[in-house]
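step=encode ok
step=design start
structure_in=
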């Protein structure tokens, strides 16, 4: 179920070809809202719009935004562009996309002739907040490394909602993007993780590919009930096609929830039960007490039996993020407020740099 209300567009605070960040008036109050131009057309000040208000009413972590469902002042939007594959299938917002592997795609032969990922490096994340620090660390250490990004459909489906991706592209930290599954809006569209992996290696041809869902991981507090569980399946997909997966653990000592202390239970579940094949798992150097807790977790859950545990220094992440002027937060916490989380991402970036140089 969802809730919706009518409102009027009062101002457009920021927009581009695909997304408009707007303010709407509802019953005399102002609210921030998002309009996806590809779904509901371009908005103008004064337009009457129907808004999905569900997330705000539930106080969910969407930044407090309503979402435009329908613009009452637009009579029709004509179908444009190539492609025959539907995303958001069988919903009122189903859209057609030209996916890289479909018959009419210029890249179809890539898939017909594919044999192996040949050890291409894939960094497998869970939280969207991981991609900025990792990619900035890689680029800070070696500006010549080319980084691409695959966005899964475990969080936000439109890539346009990610201000992080837009900033990373504008600052030439990441190069191109791929959206897979029902996620959409990447430089390339793909049907699933396997065709996305192939596109990253054979079409975009970067040095390394970072994989993560968009903003908005889903969690229920149960062992298996979180959308980041896809990390384990992605590790196996990479190995099955001959790539090299590097797993990013979620590490923090600032989260108020005990299950996320040290190595998060999300990461432990993925590495001990979900992933059936091996990966490099990068652990940062931290102070003795923290490192001992993490090492005990590794031994308790036998993470070092299946996976290759890499210990790396990630403290230079502070300089890297300052250099690129990145102000990324995780769960609302800045780098100063959750330094160990960001040091972990710096360690991953440093490991990638060593693999590529």
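sequence_out=
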């Amino acid at each position: 179920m969802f809730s919706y209300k009518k409102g009027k567009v009062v101002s457009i605070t920021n927009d581009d070809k695909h997304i408009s960040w707007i303010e709407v008036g509802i019953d005399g109050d102002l609210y921030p809202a998002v309009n996806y131009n590809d779904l509901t057309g371009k908005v103008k000040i004064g337009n009457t719009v129907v808004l999905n208000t569900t997330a705000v009413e539930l106080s969910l972590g969407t930044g407090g935004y309503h979402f435009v469902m329908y613009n009452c002042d637009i009579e029709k939007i004509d179908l444009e562009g190539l492609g025959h594959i539907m995303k958001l299938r069988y919903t009122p917002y189903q859209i057609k996309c030209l996916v890289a592997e479909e018959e009419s795609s210029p890249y179809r032969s890539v898939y017909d002739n594919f044999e192996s990922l040949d050890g291409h490096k894939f960094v497998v994340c869970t939280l969207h907040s991981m991609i900025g620090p990792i990619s900035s660390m890689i680029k800070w250490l070696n500006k010549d490394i080319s980084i691409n990004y695959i966005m899964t459909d475990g969080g936000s489906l439109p890539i346009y909602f990610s201000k992080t991706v837009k900033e990373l592209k504008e600052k030439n930290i990441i190069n191109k993007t791929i959206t897979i599954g029902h996620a959409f809006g990447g430089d390339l569209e793909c049907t699933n993780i396997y065709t996305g992996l192939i596109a990253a290696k054979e079409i975009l041809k970067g040095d390394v590919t970072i994989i993560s869902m968009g903003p908005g991981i889903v969690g229920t507090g149960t062992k298996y009930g979180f959308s980041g569980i896809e990390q384990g399946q992605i590790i196996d997909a990479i190995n099955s096609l001959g790539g090299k997966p590097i797993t990013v653990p979620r590490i923090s000592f600032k989260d108020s929830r005990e299950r996320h202390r040290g190595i998060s239970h999300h990461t432990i579940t993925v590495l001990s039960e979900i992933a059936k094949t091996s990966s490099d798992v990068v652990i940062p150097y931290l102070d003795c007490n923290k490192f001992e807790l993490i090492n005990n977790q590794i031994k308790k859950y036998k993470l070092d039996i299946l996976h290759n545990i890499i210990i790396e220094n990630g403290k230079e992440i502070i300089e890297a993020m300052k250099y690129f002027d990145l102000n990324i937060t995780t769960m609302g916490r800045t780098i100063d407020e959750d330094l160990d989380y960001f040091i972990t991402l710096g360690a991953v970036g440093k490991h990638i740099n060593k693999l590529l140089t």
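step=design ok
step=annotate ok -> The longest strand covers residues 4-15.
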